[in-house]
Amino acid sequence: MNNLINNNLLSFKDELHARPYIKLGNNLRTFHFAYLIRDNDEKKAWTYLNKFLISEGFQKLPKERYKYWVAENENLIIRYECHTEFISLTLIYPNKIDIINKKTPNLFDTNFLIKLPSDFLQNFPGQYLLSSWIEMVSSEYDYEPIDIEKYFFHDNFAGSNVAENGANVFMSFKTDNTNFIGSGFRRVFVQNKNLRTRRTGRLLQRVVELETYQVLSLLGLPQVREETINLSYLEKQITEITKSVSNTAKKNLVNKSKTKPNYQNDLNELSYVVAKIEEIASSTNYRLSATSAYYKLVEQRVKDLREERLASFQTHNEFLSRRLQPAIRTCEAFSRRLESLAVRAQRADNLVRTQIEMRIQIQNKNLLESMELRARAQLRLQETVESLSIVAITYYVIGLLSTLVDPIDFEKMHISKSVFLSLCVPVVLIFIWYIAKIVRKKIKKIN
Known about the structure:
The protein is an alpha+beta fold. Helix content is 58%, strand content 14%.
């Protein structure tokens, strides 16, 4: 047990240092790619990456799979990182940006794309998610929006001073028209002013993560839009069922109706609605939770940049608040709406079941009343039968007594046999009645 705990502690400590920042210079051409993975894609990706690294002259990967790996030589740094549902692959080319002069570095040179391993990137295991092109150069030039527009080919971008005036970051958030491996790049320009190597690595990693997480946080939006239609239909069904039950209950209350409404159809419809809500919740729960988690990471990465406003530029926080936040709010509203609908469905189900239970209770009450009437009638019949039984028993006893007294000579007794028997009738009748009364009392005590 102690060995297991010690091993876990070592594993936790290793995890804290599993993804260190890379020390980097300030002239970097970086291409970042992200792929969604499923099932066995992580194993395939590790094997696929190993073959590529060997072909490019890198040292081969260990047999044991790691979540993080950096392969490096003079011309290329490859950073591999595996997460729960995606793999990020970053290709960093040091000192590949030509500096014509301090004002005009040769940024986003599309001729360089032919040097990228397009076959390797296109066939990488997993589903392609995004690609970013990040250019970083050292410069003190004060860029205006018109200067950045030449690199991004549009005027809708964000820029801010970050890392305590250590750099300026300009992000496009749009895909260019390079159509590399069937898609374009989201361009980012980093103007590195005076960052040291370790801080440069941290800044580049934060930019990469910001690019990745903001796209991942939007994965749930198409599903939310699709399921919103189903949610509206289910809400309408619940409303109709509730109105139907309410009108029926009101009619019975006002008119004192003795009819027995059938709620089985309402209950069947509600069962379908509840099952459908559970199906939607099951299919969207993970994606909505992931959306919330990724958006929190986006907010944290923007906060980590410690950005300050640049004249004539909107900050990244402003841009994301205006563009990304509404989509996240839509997902959050859908989640709340789904929870509310589940509660409404449960209340409606309880309402219908209550009406059914009331109907059953009324039926049981009527049945008990009917049984009580039958029991009373049976009791009266039984009492009548008992009275007749007393008379019948008396008749048979007198008949038996008549046989028994045949040998007696009634002439010597100065009384006739018929008179004697007549006098015995009330005595026998009272005696039998008294015995029946005692027996009835004993039976009641037993009950």
